[in-house]
Amino acid sequence: MAGVTIAIVGARDIAKEFGKKGSASDVTLFNQVAEDHVITCVEPTNFPEKVPPLFVTLGMADRCLLVIDQLSRSIAETIAVADLYDLPTTVVLGPAVGEEEVDRLLKGTRFESGPRSALDFPALRQLLDSWSPRVEAGPVSVPIDHAFPVKGVGAVALGVVRAGTLHAHEKLRLWPTSKLVEIRSIQVHDVEVSEASNGDRVGVALKGVDPDELARGQVLAPEGSLHARASLRGTDLVPCRYHRTPWGEGAQMHLSAGLQVVPVSVGARDAKQTVLTADRAVAFHPEQRAYLLDLSSTTGPRIAARVALQDGPD
Predict the structure, then answer these.
(1) Which pLDDT band, with edges at 50, 70 and 90, does 300 fall under?
(2) Residue range(s) defining the domain that contains residue 76
């Protein structure tokens, strides 16, 4: 069965209209399982109090519903963040906001001329049913979004197969660590399977790792398929035009890469690139888009820029 993961951002208590509540932490998942199509909706539960859940939600998704049901600081920040993602997005208008207000809010963003819909749940369910997962080339890759111990089983990780095909009993590296683990078993929405492919949301029992060694943002992928570095370069730098705090060499920020959110120190910077030193290794593939977060910002959005990751200086 084909699976698609959808970020629902901008308004709370919308995702629950599209499925049954599943994993819940700082992000909450809602699953709708049909015979030939599975929809997983993700909402950033702890946003706007904390901004990393918004990045995790968007990082997990194939597509996005940006719901505007009021004009507020949090919706402005959501738009600023989502604008720098290349996630296909449909803007959903609540009944309390007018077209002219939304036009002004979205002016200059990639949503200005993008698809829009009314907050009509039957129509939106039909729209979501038509969506498919994004296709990524390369070997198997499974970013971990939740992990926990299961009595009698051991370490279990949850995530979505983002590329390739995951096979039971194969051995993969747990990036960015150097640890090799074995896929003991695979479940797709509580059904045990021998393999899972692009878009499938999986639960995998792992051999060779303790539950407390697993963390969100780690990636199950073959040896040699990713880079793991604490010394990084961010090229193709695109500043967030709404971020108000100047930043440069010496700034302490956070980097969102995939589902990882790690502290970084900013090194040399010019208009096109910056050197970054993370407090631990980051798993990435060259040219992967990542985002610089300014968690200390109190007057504007907490996203500072988008970059493309490269190996940094030794």
Answers:
(1) confident
(2) 2-129
**Same-domain check for residues 186 and 291:** no
pLDDT tens, 6-30?
Answer: 999 999 899 999 999 999 999 999 9
The answer as to whether 148 is a domain residue is: yes
For residue 2, pLDDT beyond 80: no
- Ramachandran class of 258: left when φ > 0, alpha when ψ lies in -120 to 50, beta otherwise: left
- Residue 24 Cα to chain centre, angstroms: 15
Q: Residue 195's domain is classified under what CATH number?
A: 2.40.30.10
SS3 160: strand
Residue 190 makes CB contacts below 8 A (sequence gap 6+) with 203
CA angle 163, 167, 169 (to 5 degrees): 140
For residue 298, what are its two tokens?
């109190």
| Model confidence band, residue 51 (pLDDT cutoffs 50, 70, 90) | very high
Which contiguous run of DSSP H or E holds residue 231? strand 227-239
Q: Is there a contact between 237 and 273 (Cβ–Cβ < 8 Å)?
A: yes
In the chain, the number of structural domains is 3
Integer Cα distance of 208 and 111 in angstroms = 45
> pLDDT tier at 120 (50, 70, 90 boundaries)?
very high
Same domain, yes or no: 81 and 114: yes
Q: Where are the beta strands (DSSP E) in 86-200?
A: 89-93, 116-118, 142-150, 154-160, 165-167, 171-175, 180-188, 191-193, 195-197
Same domain, residue pair 21 and 101:
yes
Mean pLDDT value across residues 243-252: 94
Q: State residue 1's pLDDT score.
A: 58
Domain annotation covers residue 151:
yes
Residues 148 and 32 in one domain: no
On the question of a cis peptide bond just before residue 48, with omega within 30 degrees of 0, the verdict is yes
Please give the pLDDT value at position 20.
Answer: 94
Q: What angle do CA 160, 54, 125 make, to 5 degrees?
A: 65
